[in-house]
Amino acid sequence: MPLPIAFISTRSADKVRNIAPYSCIMPVLRPLDLICLASAKKRDTLNNIRETNEFVVNLVGHKFSDKVIPTARFSKPEADEFELAELSPKPSSMIGAPGIAGAYAWMECRLAGFHQGPGYTLVMGKVLRLEVNDACLTPEGTLDLDRTKPLMMFGSKKGMHYCTTADLNQFDPFGAMFPDNRDPLAPVYEEGTE
Ligand SMILES: Cc1cc2nc3c(=O)[nH]c(=O)nc-3n(C[C@H](O)[C@H](O)[C@H](O)COP(=O)(O)O)c2cc1C
Question: What separation in Å is there between the alpha carbon of 39 and the centre of ligand 1?
Answer without folding.
Answer: 8
